[in-house]
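#struct-help
A.M.: can someone run this one for me? Single chain, 359 residues.
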Amino acid sequence: MDWEWDTKEWIVDKNVENLQSCTQIVDAARFLRDGETVAFPTETVYGLGANALSDEAVGKIFIAKGRPSDNPLIVHIAEKEQLREIVASLPEKATPLIEAFWPGPLTLILPKTDKVASLVTAGLDTVGVRMPDHPIALALIKQAGVPVAAPSANRSGRPSPTTAQHVLTDLSGRIAGVIDGGATGVGVESTVLDVTVDPPLICRPGGITREQLEAVVGEVRLDPAFLVDAAETPRSPGMKYAHYAPEGEMWLIQGEDSQVKEQMRIMLAEAKRQGRKTGVIATEESLSYWERQPEADVVLSVGSGAELGQVAQQLYGVLRQFDEDHVQFIVGPTFPRSGIGMAVMNRLEKASGGRILSV
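D.P.: on it. Structure tokens below:
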């Protein structure tokens, strides 16, 4: 396909008063109403939006991203009243979750209406919906006057974008426009929770933790396989295909700290012997150690290992920086799977293609 878009950029200060009526938001919303694709910031990552009620508009998302059409999308709304248009009914446990976590990084899988474009749901009778906690996203959706389907604004399989420049690196010329609202906050995508079943089922861990959910609605189950069999139809984004991957080969090493470091050094040395440029995912605590090791060509910190919220926020930027530095072989540690660490490890496992070595 020939790409003819001169991708438009709108720079918007999220602290501006009356965001919904500012010229850039009005212009970008017009693009959405006209059936085009617009990338915009949320509190998690940048999303690539299109009118969720139009198959023609939504189809442009799949083309731009190179995304398989059997991978469902999340619909973003700005007001609870918009649920009536896209959701057939609200399961009992949906209401307290909406009250507790919207706007915020929680996507609820709900029964859909026939108004939702079929491409959004990949043929399912449910739809994932969330209300983003970002003033630009909310202003854009309100001004557009339509619910907005929006996966992450990156080429399919690549690390998700946390800045407008990440979006342009992947999609310039492939989308109509991008709103530059600065860096995002949470860093990993929303938690996806299926409330059409009881107990509710986490289909993708994310910015709202299992512990937070259970404090509101009691027992919440984990999907037994975030990486599902290729023959299955995924119930939510992020379940079926490889995601978040840097271009270089990536390994995660699991075990006691000194043994992990020794194994990483052995693997880095072998990669250098093969002539490959090497990289290390470090924590703030291990940064000085790795910067002294000759086996590591590029050492990047994802933040403190004791503050997994920092790791979540910085992870995608680090993976993209390895690509910018043309790193061909990457090693990193694993992290505890409690709290937001579950989301961090889910993304790392997918980024590494499941290459985890226990020592």
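A.M.: thanks! The first strand starts at residue 8 and ends at 11.
D.P.: also worth noting: Residues 227-234 have pLDDT under 50 and may be disordered.
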